[in-house]
Amino acid sequence: MAAPRVGVVTFPGSLDDRDAARAVRIAGAEPVSLWHGDADLKGVDAVVLPGGFSYGDYLRCGAIARFAPIMTEIVPAARSGNLPVLGICNGFQILCESQLLPGALTRNASRHFICRDQLIRVEAADTVWTNGYSPGQELLIPLKSGEGNYVADPETIAELKRDNRVVVRYVDSAPNGSIDNIAGVTNEHRNVVGLMPHPEHAVEALTGPSTDGLGFFTSLLAHLTGSTPVPETAG
User: What is the side-by-side strand order in the sheet with 85-88?
Assistant: First the structure.
């Protein structure tokens, strides 16, 4: 059986697209390059919106990228529940600006760019992108962002908690000030996930602080192939 094809979008200012493609390949899927200016998904089975500074982060992070031609194809497919989409860092911001996920990402509470290895805890292990983890599992994954402070109104936060749609939380406290220590959320169909930390930078022992991030990509593979996921081991 042919390997699932996972599209990785490149916007002007993307800088983690190649890392995301590498993570997809290591997980066992075929990465497919998608250009922001083409309204063509090339028949991919899933999409990754990588980190970076799409369109220079002008106006707000992700505010211009949401209008890119490629997003006119991604948004309806993702909203229907049929297309799995993972937004990492700037990709998370794009998902919020596109209203595929609730809330918004604002300047870090410290007003400083944060770059560190960060412990996060898996809260929802029933999404397309986290089914290979166990609830409560802690992961060590790089975090690098200047606008990673997740905010939402009280009603939205209550809804996310009620429906178990907070995917991951920062352990102990959010370094960027995110409300309720939220590091990532999912939509109602659980096919769209956005998170600020970078799992694509934690897929190889040689280059990352751990291999804990690989589970996001192998979880997708398990979902697409119908195979039984093997929970990742933190550390």
Answer: 30-35, 5-10, 46-49, 85-88, 192-195, 182-186, 166-170, 114-122, 138-145
